[in-house]
Amino acid sequence: WNPDHLSFQILGIKPGTIPVCHYFPTDHLVFVPAAKDEFM
């Protein structure tokens, strides 16, 4: 990811510093790893 991307500027973050939520269209299937205790 480009650290100068508009989304990072709007959120005031840098790539890899914090988890960011993603939104997917209806009826899409997404596989994600189980959450680690450090984020719960």
UniProtKB/TrEMBL annotation:
Taxonomy, superkingdom: Eukaryota
Pfam families given in the database record: BURP
Domain BURP: 1-34
Membrane-spanning parts: none
UniProt-listed PANTHER family: BURP DOMAIN PROTEIN USPL1-LIKE
Protein's name according to its UniProt entry: BURP domain-containing protein
Organism: Citrus sinensis
